[in-house]
């Protein structure tokens, strides 16, 4: 079946502009995660959505970052007033939560954001 | 997703050799430890996991070893193939509050397999 998709695949923006990154998780996956990956670095957790529960926003680096998940499916990550240090690959992952011990997160291909 | 960088640890092996990738973790309260593989231009892909109360777990051509005494995790790949070339990340799972399945990733190791 279809995997996790993200759009756009690449985004180049100017410093100070707002950007929106989209994630379409695998149908039926109730958990959705956003991560950020800078060049040569591991993945940095940003935010987590689980069903109708309040999201875990503990990884968002500043109040310029926000995310929402509409209807328990599609998610949008918004970065306001982008800065050059926001340049990274933004990865989305989804996970079925049928079993507590299922650790497999399914990742999308990512959106490469470049802030000039 | 971009994964290759100049400062990641690297491991080069010949095709057919066994590979061992190591990871030091920080949180002794982690519930699970997981290995992911990331090929160039793609998102990470799950390989294998191990629960914190286990020492060893085997999969197809892969074995994960957990040493809680020294907070060390390793991934062994048997008969390494060129298709195994990628960046390998270890990750810890910590469930806290209402956040389940949240992962903390390590820096990654670049594995290069030479034919």
Would you write up a description of this structure?
The complex is a heterodimer of chains A (about 120) and B (about 120). In chain A, about 35% of the residues are buried. Chain A has strands spanning about 5, 10-15, 20-25, 30-35, 45-50, 65-70, 75-80, 90-95, 105, 110-115. Chain A contains no helices and ten strands. In chain A, the strands form two sheets. In chain A, strands 2, 4, 5, 8, 9 and 10 form a six-stranded mixed β-sheet that branches. Chain A is mainly β and about 120 residues long. Chain B has about 120 residues and is an all-beta fold. Chain B contains no helices and ten strands. Chain B has strands at about 10-15, 20-25, 30-40, 45-50, 55-60, 60-65, 70-75, 85-95, 105, 110-115. In chain B, strands 1, 3, 4, 8, 9 and 10 form a six-stranded mixed β-sheet that branches. In chain B, strands 2-7-6-5 form a four-stranded antiparallel β-sheet, with no helix packed on it. In chain B, β6 (about 60-65) and β7 form a beta hairpin. The two termini of chain B are about 25 Å apart. Chains A and B meet through β4, β5, β8 and β9 of A and β4, β8 and β9 of B.
Structural class of chain A: mainly beta
Which two protein chains have the largest interface (Cβ within 8 Å of the partner's Cβ), and how many residues from each?
Answer: A-B, 34 and 33 residues
Order of helices and strands of chain A: EEEEEEEEEE
Shape of chain A: globular
- Whole-number average pLDDT of chain B? 89
Can you tell me the residue ranges of chain A where pLDDT is under 50 for at least 5 consecutive residues?
none
Radius of gyration of chain B: 14 Å
- The count of β-strands of chain B is 10
Biggest sheet character of chain A: 6 strands, mixed
Strand element count of chain A: 10
What quaternary form is this?
heterodimer
Give the C-alpha Rg of chain A.
14 Å
| Shape, per Cα inertia axes of chain B | globular
Residue fraction in strands of chain B: over 45%
Main sheet makeup of chain B = 6 strands, mixed
């Amino acid at each position: 079946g279809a995997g996790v998709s993200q759009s756009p695949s690449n985004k180049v923006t100017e410093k100070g502009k707002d950007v929106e990154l989209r994630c379409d998780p695998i149908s039926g996956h109730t958990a959705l995660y956003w991560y950020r990956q800078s060049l040569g670095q591991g993945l940095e957790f940003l935010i987590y959505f689980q069903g109708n529960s309040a999201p875990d926003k503990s990884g968002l680096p500043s109040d310029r970052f926000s995310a929402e998940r509409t209807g328990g499916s599609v998610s949008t990550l918004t970065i306001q007033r982008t800065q050059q240090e926001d340049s990274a690959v933004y990865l989305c992952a989804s996970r079925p939560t049928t079993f507590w011990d299922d650790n497999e997160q399914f990742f999308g291909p990512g959106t490469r954001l470049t802030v000039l | 997703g971009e994964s290759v960088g100049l400062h990641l640890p690297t491991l080069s092996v010949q095709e057919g050799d066994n590979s061992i990738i190591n990871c030091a973790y920080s949180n002794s309260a982690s519930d699970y430890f997981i290995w992911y593989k990331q090929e160039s231009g793609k998102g990470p892909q799950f390989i294998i996991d191990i629960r914190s109360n286990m020492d060893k777990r085997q999969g197809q051509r892969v074995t994960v070893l957990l040493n809680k005494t020294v907070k060390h995790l390793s991934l062994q790949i048997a008969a390494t193939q060129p298709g195994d070339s990628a960046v390998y990340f270890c990750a810890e799972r910590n469930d806290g509050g209402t956040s389940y399945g949240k992962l903390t990733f390590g820096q990654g190791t670049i594995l290069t397999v030479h034919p």
